[in-house]
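Quick one, T. Sequence first:
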Amino acid sequence: MSAPAAAARAAAAPARQTGAGIAGHDGVWLAWRAFGEGDPILLIMGFMGSGRAWYRLLPHLAGPSSPSPRRAVTMDNRGTGESDRPLGLWTMDDLAGDALAVMDAAGLDSAHVVGASMGGMIAQHLALDHPERVRSLTLACTHPGGRRPGGLPWRMLASLALRPVFGPERTFPLVAPLLYSERTRTAHRDRLAEDLDMRFQDGTPVATAPAQMAAILGHDTRPRLHELTMPVLVVHGAEDALVPPSAAEELARLIPGARLEIIPHCGHVLTTDAEGEAAAAVLGFLDCVA
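Structure tokens:
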């Protein structure tokens, strides 16, 4: 771990919640929470994850030891956490509209937007359709769409199919190689247990998976990414087995002036595999564009 990354992880202290509420979009209600005060940041989580999944990054962004005052707003995507669980299949327009509604409800005229995995896809659509609301864009472990890099995630789909029968604890090992680096899976199993506990508390239903997957399969921003003019960071794990690093390289190539950071010894879940390095990359970028 680099010296700045080690310092970032060591300095993290819990972020204090400073607000919460419910946003509405086309009859769907979305739960959100705010932490800290200062420069606004909207955090959008990925597939099957709620806002709770930002628990490792939040202290770095909005904790009492954060070097710059920030107000970080997390949201529970529809179908996750405390948000509504509407029936049917969803589109990226639905999910980006949810994010915009949360910004309105939280009083964010504009914000730095950070999206991870599917959340990074949502963030792309939000920035393209509402550029005046996005001060900067951080795209973590995500891709621009089209033909899915690496093919379908069969391990993940099998894990989801088997979860109602065998439970999350027994199906988690099936999907873990897609999400985490070998180093984390062998030497830091305590961090896997923390993530599993968080997911278990979240209780996201399996029915959310096909609805979100429909939005992911319809995602393709490649023809429009040249329209982005705000500062953009693309950050990715070198050992990501779910979304290969080539997807990050493509994103950075298609977005004018984008900054690309590849974190070594890191898989898909950046803040579990490399919390210090991921936090340092995001904080360093935000400090440059604030």
